[in-house]
Fold each of these.
Amino acid sequence: MLREQLEQYVAAMADQAAVVGQFRAFLEEPDSFQRSRPDGHFTGAAWLVSADGQRVLLTHHRKLDRWLQLGGHADGDEDLRRVALREAEEESGLNGLVVEPEIFDLDRHWIPERGEVSGHWHYDVRFVVRATGDERYVVSEESHDLAWRDIRSIAEDIDADESLRRMAGRWLDRQRRE
């Protein structure tokens, strides 16, 4: 499934061919969907947008102490779209979420050593998840806090995480085309 999604992504985002190449190569590695793989593993993430498409729900991540998109480990599940939806539901407490079928963004990033877990790579596959009902969230144990943030503000915030700015810009471009 991921192989096909990567092909569709690179067809739509030709400028991302090098990143897709990294993900394709890692997909061929054994246990790439297992958290126990010490050098890195696939993760699924959610660009969780409000019903009006103007805001995104971010987590102040407890372990990394930064504002990021929701998401988490695949733990053997090779359907990263399903992982993204599950993590969005678990980390936000929101119901009625809908996940889009195609990859929205790819990001390979380093996770620093923490306790007994050595530093490793996350091959993060991100999907748009849409809120369709009540947008009152519940902060999970994985977060210091959650907040709905204006997407345009993220795109313009030079201090925001680079991948968040990239996704915000991509979302705004998509909104202009629709």
Amino acid sequence: MKKTITDYNYNGKKVIIRCDLNVPIENGIITDDTRIKESLKSIKYLIDNNAKTIILSHLGKIKTQEDKSENTLYPVYIKLREYLNTNVYFSRETRGESLEELVNNLKEKDVLLVENTRFEDFPDKLESNCDEKLSKYWASLGDIFINDAYGTCHRAHASNVGIAKNLPNGIGFLVEKEITKLDEILNEDTHPYTVVMGGKKVSDKTLVIDNLITKCDYLLLGGGMCFTFLKSQNYNVGKSIVDNDNLIYCKNLMNKYRDKIILPVDIVTNNKNIREISSISDNEIGFDIGPQTIELFTDILKKSKRVIINGPMGVFEEEGFSNGTKKIYEIIKEKHIKTLIGGGDSAASVNKLGFANDFFHISTGGGATLEYLSGTILPGIAVIEEK
């Protein structure tokens, strides 16, 4: 069992906490502060325990000098001041004398948000490449390191793995919750166990499929990725998205697990026609699963005891193509089925379609959850000390 935020005495200690404050910002205004809210429990715990808290986070990707002005954490600093009843400071530098002065002047219960860690990615990718010198520098600013950025746990960066190698460490409440919930649903021995998978590319999901197909009872395929499977079975999928590099993979999987893999029997096309999968025309694109497929999928879901969903069933962002995803969520809610929503587009669809409070767990990290479901050990968690 990994050490957690509750395993240390923070009185007067400088604590570096890596959070995931990578929120959407338009014209300097945060449009969704969910990730900030998710981080508050750990931050407030440090404040309540008299720590001098130093927050690190990334925001977007930094490939040019111009990206820095667009991806500053300053709006997050303003939002943190609203949520935290204490002194909150902001460092515009990611290293150097001004940052060090701010750190050294911190008093108990004070909070310092440091500018976007990925500013160190231009021009030499020091953050993303887990540069040893940068890792040791950041570690030198604190006494203890807490990783509460679940969304980046699948990355070995300087601000998570690098610092953890150089300080006493633990995981925060958010990371602990994510891992506990994932382990619970993955290790539970209840059946039927159903995996619902959508999204665009098969290549993003092969490791997850390989890990889960031997354990689940059903794999329901929708979204853009189902068309690669359908094409592998010699169906004409028109101009629907196809991952040609994985056609043989899909064909072999179908041959081996034909009794588990359930493909759509009809789809809604881009021009809102309902087509059986044998009747898709050359110029049509599949945008959602059709009514017969919804019925087929819901019949399986009704008898399922636990469900993992990774990827929506269609272009849920558009009103005319959200029905498949919505109907899947409705039956799960109605039947109170224990369900894990696997972050990323899945979490976005749950929020947009109004099901934010209706599932066992909605993961906050798309990439991290994808890798965890594939059986991969996440480097941001592996580096944390055992109790």
Amino acid sequence: MDNMFNLTGRVAVVTGGSRGLGREMVMAFARHGADVVIASRKVDACEALAAEVVAETGRRATPTAFHAGRWDDCEALHRLVYDEYGRCDVLVNNAGMSPLYPSLVEVSEDLFDKVMAVNFKGPFRLSALFGASMAAASGGSIINVSSIAAVAPSPDELVYAGAKSALNTLTTGLSHAYGPTVRANVIMPGPFLTDIAKAWDLDAFNVRAAQEIPLARGGEAHEVVGAALYLASDASSYTTGAVIKIDGGLAHRPG
């Protein structure tokens, strides 16, 4: 079983990789033998995590500044990875944003465009670039991090939900566009207690979780690792176009 999840000799790129779910995936990939590229807007956080990766695992780690909503940044990240490593085996489109807004009619065009750019435009462009390069080489795995908002949207996150729904659809198309050597799949998280949860009323959340989530709690960041390793490794060799929901059972609940 250890060999199924072995990533030795592979290169994994994780956007939004310096914190939260991205950080956990970076560390898991490195612990299982992969060299990692850590990309996010805060390069100092990427550098700190890269140093931690090297110290703990001895794997190579490259930090880089990256804005998922910028087409040029996608091009630059692709060039960096192939200039530095000559290959990419795993791409994780994890960067995302979901700013609050007071009402639907008060959603500005600027907010709409930013949310769509970070959550859909960037992953689209990165998947196209890396997917084509993977397909021209020995293949690889694209993992898009979506959200249960894509299938169970609430009124205060509709732009985000629409972008994540588009990301799910994109992933299905990618599995056909770049198969059979490139696999494309979705991790669809529910509420995770990462640093974004610091802005929540946790007492109110815990009350709701006990009533609405079958597992009666929010997820811990490390609980994404099993799905990420599965999709990144040979363990998922016959899995593509799939959506793996990790939400404690919240979405699609009865009633």
Amino acid sequence: MLATIKWTGKTLELLDQTQLPQVKDYVVCANYRDVRDAIRSMKVRGAPAIGVSAAYGMALAAYECETQADSMDTFLECLDNAAAYLISARPTAVNLAWAVNKMLDKARETGDSAKIPVALAKLAQEIEKEDLEVCMRIGKHGAELLGSPATVLTHCNAGSLATAGYGTALGVVRAAIEAGKEIEVYADETRPFLQGARLTAFELAEDNIPVTLITDSMAAYVMSQGIIDCVIVGADRIAANGDVANKIGTYGLAVLAREHDIPFYVAAPISTFDFGIQSGREIAIEERDGNEVAEIFGHRIAPEGIRILNPAFDVTPHGYVTAIITEQGVIHSPCAKGLEKLLKGGKE
């Protein structure tokens, strides 16, 4: 698996996912502004990977603030400004704010401006390591839900490229294969940014995992043909009641899965849950540049002057979700009660 994130101690190197699969190149982030730009431009994407990258962005900010601040108060003010700038990159993925706020808490807890940069760099490395371990636990829990042979339909990219490694939705696939199960994947191309075609198909092929690419509009057809055994997707934010925000098109897949009596699974870490909101109606949906729809690789495919709608995410109501696969276990429907039980230490 290609490393998505590389920390050198002085810079952060991020695999430029806008150039995959044709070019495997890394962008070098020398400061938190570079990290924010990489997140905003989707050079790095996927909620867990965004969170890890933002954590390193805060470490870079701490080194910069150390040279500018003349007191602890001005140091923390500098960090607060960097945090707000990083969080503004993308509003929907909760892991971004989660990681940044965790870094801010660590800075205040450390209390000594001279020690904060090293402390934050260490914490960012711990967050990266923890994300990999969490993905592997998600994979193990999710693999138990899959039969053998089984064909999985997935949307967008929730694999090693979207995390610190291994993946969430694709982590379930990898764990099932490692357990000796025969698994095949169908990948939606995921318009308009083509994460399924460019990234999911790419990383599965790199790992010699059987993958078939389809357009988004073919999902209903392949389900009707009895080809798909289950749908597994990732998540960018999950409300307290189990409503799931994920890449645009996910909601449609959930409706189709229900119609065809196919299990619809969401694989995501507990950090993706936003317990401050009660339902998906409260989730801010990022609206991106219309040129992402009107153009493909810089070539205009739509008439000039037309209006374009380009929401990056949609929200799947929890009633369409068969189960949410977390590092702590599987939360079965109804999700809200299952989540409460799981977090209290019970088994689902």
